[in-house]
Amino acid sequence: QVQLVESGGGLVQPGGSLRLSCVASGSIFSIFAMGWYRQAPGKQRELVAAVTRGGSINYADSVKGRFTISRDNAKNTVYLEMNSLKPEDTAVYYCNARILERSGNSAYDYWGQGTQVTVSS
After folding, report:
1. Nearest to 22, CA basis, from 71, 57, 74, 89
2. Do the strands 108-111 and 91-101 form a parallel or antiparallel pair, or are they unpaired?
3. Dist CA 87 CA 117 (whole Å)
4. 48, 77, 78, 89: which is deepest, by most CB within 10 A?
């Protein structure tokens, strides 16, 4: 059984910074891509940033230059450093990882429970 646990959300003023963390635990054989998605009220969930095991990174245009994704493979952890936050960044942020379990033959996508990020003065 695999679990993703996020931390680091909260309330921040415009222009401020937050750092999100997500740790994967359980019967993990290998983790492929890891990433962050977000969902604002009344909107669809969207990709924010993703990083492959080899380090290839993809960002949504709306966060390029402000957000930085990184991962620590030894700790099964992915981070999202968010700077110059704007009110439109307000959303629930979800961690995602494609994981092959020790007992599995195929990799599947797993999701965290979500962490609220609110940017407001």
Report:
1. 71
2. antiparallel
3. 10
4. 78
Q: Which two tokens stand for residue 30?
A: 């290998």
Q: CA of 32: how far to CAs of 52, 77, 97, 106, in Å?
A: 6, 12, 7, 12
Per-residue pLDDT of 14-28, as tens digits, reads 999 999 999 999 999
Q: What is the 3-state secondary structure (H, E, C) of the chain?
A: CEEEEEECCEEECCCCCEEEEEEEEECEEEEEEEEEEEECCCCCCEEEEEECCCCCEEECHHHCCCEEEEEEHHHCEEEEEECCCCHHHCEEEEEEEEEEECCCCCCEEEECCCEEEEECC
pLDDT in tens, 74-112: 999 999 999 999 999 999 999 999 999 988 888 999 999
